[in-house]
Design brief:
Radius of gyration: 26 Å
Distance between the termini: 49 Å
Number of helices: 9
């Protein structure tokens, strides 16, 4: 017993020494760089106060585009799943090929393909559509098409997670396959699908930063505007990163809360 106490005391003393060293290093760091940190913080606050309208506009654009894209992507993703699981071979091949291409290519190339492809086919200026509106619409289309491939796999995984015996039992009771899917399988699969869809929404919010390259006025687009206007590089980026973090962190906590309520019910 005495040996055990000695070993525990040694561990505690080592831990205390490490804690003191970390605190000492932190104090030295603050002492040396404290003034720079305070100035940097003050500059960041001033930039945000001065250009807050830019950031708010970018925030609203990012959220609206992400939400619309996930809704459209979920609808198209459901059709992709139905096509992939169809007994018609041509539909199944098309769905598999589409999913593999989308998941195997960078989203940036997909955004450029949709933007420049539609611009070469449609003369949007003749319809009185501005370049910013056209960029927003093509951004929604590109992100929706990308999200659909992942949503279809989410739906497939959620449904396949249900024991196949339940479908067989429902059919043996005289239910049609479509009715069994609607009444037995889907209600259970929803528990697996909804959290994954929420995570897809969070992922899309971060991925939409790419669409600033085609002129969509999202957070990153406005960050670059602020960088050019303020002649500061790092501070506007930090503000933009904090906005992305605030959205994703809030949605993640909300998702966990909803999952907890769902599990209790």
């Amino acid at each position: 017993m005495e040996n055990i106490y000695k070993l525990e005391n040694k561990k505690l003393s080592k831990n205390n020494i490490i804690n003191y060293l970390v605190i000492f290093a932190f104090v030295i760091f603050i002492f040396i760089f404290g003034n720079l940190i305070i100035n940097f913080f003050n500059t960041t606050v001033e930039i945000f106060e001065k250009y807050s309208s830019y950031y708010i506009k970018g925030l609203l654009t990012t959220i609206s585009l992400s939400l619309i894209s996930v809704i459209l992507g979920s609808i198209f993703g459901l059709f992709l799943y139905l096509m992939k699981s169809s007994e018609i071979k041509s539909l199944s091949i098309f769905a598999n090929l589409y999913i593999e291409i989308i998941r195997g290519t960078p989203m940036l190339t997909q955004v450029f393909f949709v933007f420049f492809g539609l611009a070469s086919i449609i003369n949007f200026k003749s319809f009185g559509i501005s370049i910013s509106s056209f960029a927003y619409v093509t951004g929604v289309i590109a992100v929706s098409l990308n999200s659909a491939a992942y949503v279809s796999e989410i739906i497939r995984a959620g449904i396949n997670a249900i024991d196949k015996g339940q479908m067989e039992a429902a059919i043996s009771l005289g239910m049609k396959k479509s009715l069994a899917m609607e009444e037995v399988i889907l209600p259970q699969a929803t528990k697996n699908i909804l959290p994954a869809l929420a995570n897809e929404f969070i992922a899309v919010i971060k991925e939409t930063s790419i669409i600033s390259t085609i002129g969509v006025t999202d957070i990153m687009y406005n960050v670059n505007l602020v960088r050019g206007s303020s002649y500061k590089s790092l501070e506007p980026l930090i503000i933009g990163s904090m906005l992305y973090f605030a959205i994703t962190f809030t949605l993640t906590r909300l998702l966990k809360f909803v999952e907890g309520k769902y599990d209790k019910n």
